[in-house]
Design brief:
This protein is α/β, with parallel strands linked by helices. It is about 25% helix and about 25% strand. The termini are far apart.
Length: about 600
């Protein structure tokens, strides 16, 4: 019997050089800028994974506690709890010099960073590790990466979900086991420098969904429900108060001006802010706060929104045989005929760049997923000429993994021959998309994470890769520069589209499709390599499109040679549905040139 398992038994020892602090927070909502921490726990781990020091408390933020049905933190429970300013000193002492470990670490770090800033002091943690990214790097055999699923996978008892202390306790066990597996696979841990490209979210107006259609630009007839309004510059009435009044009147208040903006409110248009310049360029009316106050006395009724969807026809798309249905368990292959090698993860060793590209393409054509690293999920190794020089070959043999040759791949493609060891081991899995292939995303799921990863290198040899997103109109152009999401502008509309850097070779673009404005017809997700290195140097790029319930599809794109930028995937509207396409279109120029092609105004460009 072939043993493909990775064993993690024996003495536990966390990697040295870090002071690991496992953290969990419960919050009143999803956005650090608008919501608050209600409970926090922090556990300092010893080298053997045991708890050296612990801290846990409720926090009275004097706010609406939000989803009480999830965290059970009512106003009454929080009434006698300390304020964050009261605990900031002790929590800072625990975090100082530590590497913060959390599940979806950008979320926990973002909330703690915001609370420390409100308390008038910087967060002392300078590094973080995301256990969700670590689990993806390991390619654990799990249906999704929720903490409860990982706890079950690692046989860790979860006593009270969404309790900060118990979640931190469970996560500490998950982290220790995951780190031990990473060590056995010789995979570096995805530690991120928090101070690198750190972006502080400015105070902004929280977008409230508007039930009225946009009637267009402001005219002499006055305001109409559904008009899109943008505030620019200082206001006499506090901005958030003014925004709430307009929202209550049925207006759609946004943070950035676009061609769809009905009116810009600015007390001093002569200042020429970016919003005012956009308004002048597009012929959008600009009014003062005093004029707005007069107009708010009477706002005409608007037209209720109807469920209309713009039909977008992408070019040169190759649809998958059938679209997945939105069932919670194994829905990705419901109604689809599994391919010959479905469920397999194949690690390729040796070969030239062109040989590797051809073999990965054929592996994906067979329904298997090419693996970029030697991970827990690898089921087979494909050996090309020169594989003997790859240090991973000894680990392949140590795990007694089945070994494939190019002849096996060609026989499967040309004659439908399935190697004997695969005939009883094929597992249901998300479809593997080849370049140009398309699937429909399940309508019942609106929150997706497009996770981009590449080969994990040893510390100090990482590629400087930037993953970005463009929100595009029907002409495949951004409406405003805010529609370009990148490391200096990591969130569109307070998190409707958001970039997170989860590891040294993992970045994600998270999308809430339910909140995407109607004028956005397509979201293009791309990557750029800084400096002189190219996608030929980087190698294959892995894409996984996930929701909380599971993975919709994966793709591996590796046809790059001299390109420095590449459009990886697109999410677009068509025939009443959101669709996903694997793209893989590369360009030899840099990120600035790619942004200009999509209509972004870049300093120094024409």
């Amino acid at each position: 019997m072939i043993d493909t398992r990775v064993h993690t038994s024996g003495p536990r020892a966390l990697p040295g050089g870090h002071r690991w602090v496992v953290v969990d927070v419960e919050t009143s909502g999803l956005r650090p800028n608008a919501h608050r921490v209600l409970s926090v726990a922090a556990l300092v781990l010893r080298e053997d994974g045991s708890i050296e020091r612990e801290f846990s408390t409720l926090v009275n933020a004097d706010c609406d506690p939000g989803p009480v049905h999830i965290h059970n933190l009512t106003r009454d429970r929080l009434a006698d709890a300390p304020r964050f300013t009261d605990i900031a000193g002790e929590l800072a002492d625990i975090l100082d010099g530590g590497t913060l470990v959390a599940h979806n670490a950008s979320f926990d770090y973002g909330f703690l960073d915001a609370e420390f800033r409100r308390a008038g002091r910087p967060i002392p943690a300078q590094q973080r590790l995301c256990t969700l990214a670590l689990s993806r790097r390991l390619e654990l055999d799990v249906p999704n990466y929720q903490l409860s699923t990982l706890a079950q996978h690692w046989q860790v008892q979860q006593l009270k979900a969404h309790d900060a202390y118990d979640d931190a306790r469970v996560l500490s066990e998950v982290f220790v086991r995951s780190a031990t597996m990473a060590e056995s696979l010789q995979l570096p841990l995805p530690v991120v420098n928090c101070l690198s490209r750190k972006s502080v979210y400015p105070d902004s107006v929280q977008r409230v969904p508007c039930q009225w259609k946009n009637p267009g630009r402001l005219t002499e007839a006055g305001l109409v429900q559904g008009m899109k309004v943008v505030i620019s510059g200082a206001t006499t009435t506090p901005r958030l108060t003014l925004a709430r009044r307009m929202t209550d009147a049925g207006l759609d208040v946004l943070n950035s001006a676009s061609r769809q903006t009905s009116v810009v409110v600015c007390n001093d248009p002569g200042v020429q802010t970016a919003k005012v310049r956009k308004a002048m360029a597009e012929g959008i009316p600009v009014i003062t706060e005093q004029q707005l106050e007069a107009l708010l006395v009477r706002v005409a009724p608007g037209e209720s929104k109807a469920a209309t969807v713009i039909d977008v026809v992408p070019q040169q798309e190759t649809p998958v045989t059938a679209a997945p249905t939105p069932e919670p368990q194994n829905w990705a292959l419901q109604g689809m005929k599994p391919k010959l090698w479905s469920g397999r993860r194949v690690l390729l060793l040796g070969g030239t760049h062109l040989e590797a590209v051809l073999m990965r393409s054929r592996i994906a054509q067979l329904g298997a997923r090419p693996s970029l690293n030697f991970t827990a999920a690898v089921t087979d190794a494909l050996l090309l000429e020169g594989a003997d020089a790859d240090k991973r070959l000894s680990r392949v043999r140590g795990r007694r993994l089945p070994v494939l040759t190019p002849d096996d791949v060609n026989a499967a493609i040309e004659k439908g021959v399935v190697p004997a060891h695969m005939r009883t081991e094929s597992r249901l899995s998300a479809p593997v998309l080849s370049q140009g292939e398309v699937i429909d995303l399940p309508a019942k799921t609106t929150r997706w994470s497009v996770n981009v990863a590449w080969k994990a290198e040893a510390t100090g040899d990482e590629f400087d890769v930037d993953v970005v997103a463009f929100l595009l109109d029907g002409n495949e152009r951004v409406d405003t520069d805010v529609d370009f999401v990148f490391y200096n502008n990591p969130a569109y509309d307070d998190g409707v589209v958001e970039l997170t850097i989860d590891g040294s070779s993992e970045q994600s673009v998270r999308v809430d499709l339910a909140s995407i404005p109607a004028e956005c017809e397509r979201i293009a997700i791309a990557a750029a390599i800084d400096g002189d290195r190219t996608f030929g140097d980087l190698g294959a790029i892995s894409i996984s499109v996930d929701s909380e319930s599971g993975t919709a599809a994966t793709a591996v794109l590796d046809a790059g040679t001299t390109e420095r930028t590449m459009v990886l995937a697109e999410i677009y509207r068509r025939s009443g549905k959101w669709r996903l396409r694997a793209v893989g279109q590369g360009y030899d120029d840099d990120l600035a040139a790619l942004a200009v092609r999509y209509g972004v105004e870049v300093e120094g460009s024409d």
